[in-house]
């Protein structure tokens, strides 16, 4: 297979069952200047979009090898194992790469709230042309999840 954008162009017309070795995909992915790609977490059985975070190559490998989702925390500048503080873990069901090689989709089994606000999803504010409206209540008080650490 080819390199870079050519690889992903070839995959556009590939038949189901076509395989590409993971190292080849990773070296051809479009990582940002910090070596990160966005990773969207979606509940595997309901389709609910839970959150977006960042992954680097090491956290991607850890997630695939352990089955427990690990992101890269830009604020902490270190790996962040989802639920390490709150207990609200994500178990990986399946990981997918988008057609351009620049975004990951993680199909997960989310335990409890995915958002640090205590809500199930980080996407709890609905936008219209006039306003933003909070549409989901927290499942749990963030103080219970994190204490005073947040």
Automatic annotation (TrEMBL):
Zn(2+) binds at residues 99, 115, 122. It is an enzyme of class 3 (hydrolase). It catalyses: 1-(5-phospho-beta-D-ribosyl)-5'-AMP + H2O = 1-(5-phospho-beta-D-ribosyl)-5-[(5-phospho-beta-D-ribosylamino)methylideneamino]imidazole-4-carboxamide; 1-(5-phospho-beta-D-ribosyl)-ATP + H2O = 1-(5-phospho-beta-D-ribosyl)-5'-AMP + diphosphate + H(+). GO terms for biological process: L-histidine biosynthetic process. It is found in: Cytoplasm. Homodimer. This is Phosphoribosyl-AMP cyclohydrolase. The lineage of its organism: Bacteria, Pseudomonadati, Pseudomonadota, Gammaproteobacteria, Oceanospirillales.
């Amino acid at each position: 297979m080819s390199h870079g954008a050519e690889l992903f162009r070839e995959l556009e017309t590939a038949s189901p069952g076509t395989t590409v070795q993971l190292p080849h995909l990773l070296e051809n992915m479009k990582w940002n200047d910090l070596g990160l790609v966005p990773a969207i977490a979606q509940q595997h059985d309901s389709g609910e979009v839970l959150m977006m975070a960042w992954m680097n190559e090491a956290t991607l490998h850890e997630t695939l090898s352990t089955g427990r989702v690990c992101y890269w925390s830009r604020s902490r500048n270190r790996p962040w194992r989802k639920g390490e503080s709150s207990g609200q873990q994500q178990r990986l069901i399946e990981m997918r790469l988008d057609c351009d090689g620049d975004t990951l989709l993680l199909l997960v089994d989310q335990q409890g709230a995915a958002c640090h606000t205590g809500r199930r999803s980080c996407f709890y504010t609905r936008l219209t042309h006039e306003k933003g409206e909070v549409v989901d209540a927290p499942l749990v008080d963030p103080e219970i999840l994190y204490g005073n650490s947040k």
